Amino acid sequence: MQGMGLGTGSSCAPCSAGHPAGRRSAGPKGGLSRGGSACPRPVIKEEEEEGGDAPGTGPEHGGQPDTGSVTMAQSKGTVVLAYSGGLDTSCILVWLKEQGYDVVAYLANIGQKEDFEAARKKALALGAKKVYIEDVSREFVEEFIWPAVQANALYEDRYLLGTALARPCIARKLVEIAQREGAQHIAHGATGKGNDQVRFELSCYALCPKIKVVAPWRLPEFYQRFPGRRELMDYAKKHGIPVPVTPQTPWSMDENLMHISYEAGILENPKNQAPPGLYTKTCDPANSPDTPDVLEIKFERGVPVEVTNTGDGATRSSALELFVYLNDIAGKHGVGRIDIVENRFVGMKSRGIYETPAGTILYHAHLDIEAFTMDREVRKIKQGLSLKFSELVYNGFWHSPECEFLRECIGRSQEPVVGTVRLSVFKGQVYILGRESPRSLYNEELVSL
């Protein structure tokens, strides 16, 4: 079976330009579709099952079929599964093999707390042909979070888009691995009621219009077989899938470097207060230190390039280290908690609780330095662009031509956004203390009374 990835004439083949072509695609019949072709090609590291095929070999390339795979007569080809190591995607991995797929598992390290080595061994034990564990933390900060900071991106006035920004980053690598493996299919474990199914699939279709998506939680043969967690647990025991031994929290969580979200379970009743033990990235502001941390954050073109703690002199300047440091400081002071009801793209309201520590500090700091340096009329237009940008990101259109256009426009607006903001982080709040900039439009002599 010829792969969709790097073969001659494939619509998924990387182009030489290094960026999305901005073409819309009709997409597979009945599927979510929108976008063009794209061609990111960073180095990919991989973990293989012992004795497994190396990249570019195996049945689809004329090599010898793996003895543990289904027979070629039954084979549906290779599918790359966005794998988390949890119960759902572990069951999906085994189920996909039952359906006749050769499964390549992909686990993104995007800053979450995870035993990646244990997840790799688990996936291989369950029959994955290969396991890719990719650290995308740095590119997540530099290529996804920084544009959101420049935009002052905020969905429905409160949500800083932590999950929505992570999905296109994860999906981009998912498509790259599918291209390398010659896989015609990708699969994910997102439910049929949430936003993530849309975010994953729109990104994949934009980057590779002919890719085929397997979404088990939308397939009757899957969700009718597994109507609840009990059926998944029974299936896991039957197939030797390790079952979690720790008690399940009565809500679901999703974590990345930027934030952690909590929803479902007891949180679905919007009048229920979040229990004290829910929060994991931030401490209770009431129990936070009685002395603030005073920070100076330096911006160039609207991007934070250095943070200095005036108390102990600690400095961070690389993107990833800077962001991790701000997460630590904000978390210590209980900064970044919100409890909201939002409008999902799929047509329902949902209650979500979020912790976005570093993102909250940077939102306030960037808002301040931008107001200090940007022309009034340009800023009015830019605010409208930011509103549209936030909506597109939330709805899954990061890789669309219109979102790329907005990022270019917003990036152009950030040329004068240069300078340093001094702020205090204390008891769940961020307080702006002062700012300075060589591009300031503030005229002290003119404004003086």
From TrEMBL:
PANTHER family per UniProt: ARGININOSUCCINATE SYNTHASE
Alphabetized NCBIfam families for the sequence: argG, PRK00509.1
Alphabetical list of SUPFAM superfamilies matching this protein: Adenine nucleotide alpha hydrolases-like, Argininosuccinate synthetase, C-terminal domain
Locations listed in the record: Cytoplasm, Cytosol
Organism listed in the record: Cyanistes caeruleus (Eurasian blue tit)
Gene that this polypeptide is encoded by: ASS1
Leader peptide range in chain numbering: none
Record pathway: Nitrogen metabolism; urea cycle; (N(omega)-L-arginino)succinate from L-aspartate and L-citrulline: step 1/1; Amino-acid biosynthesis; L-arginine biosynthesis; L-arginine from L-ornithine and carbamoyl phosphate: step 2/3
Broad class of where this protein is predominantly found: cytoplasm
Domain annotation Arginosuccinate synthase-like N-terminal: ranges: 79-242
Catalysed reactions, as listed in the record: L-citrulline + L-aspartate + ATP = 2-(N(omega)-L-arginino)succinate + AMP + diphosphate + H(+)
Lineage of origin: Eukaryota, Metazoa, Chordata, Craniata, Vertebrata
UniProtKB keywords: Amino-acid biosynthesis, Arginine biosynthesis, ATP-binding, Cytoplasm, Ligase, Nucleotide-binding, Phosphoprotein, Urea cycle
GO molecular function, one term: ATP binding
The keyword Zinc is annotated on this UniProt entry: no
Family annotation (PROSITE patterns): ARGININOSUCCIN_SYN_1 (PS00564), ARGININOSUCCIN_SYN_2 (PS00565)
Gene Ontology biological-process entries: argininosuccinate metabolic process; L-arginine biosynthetic process; urea cycle
Keyword Phosphoprotein: yes
EC number(s) on file: 6.3.4.5
GO terms under cellular component: cytosol
Protein name in the entry: Argininosuccinate synthase
Region feature (Disordered): 1-71
Residues in coiled coil: none
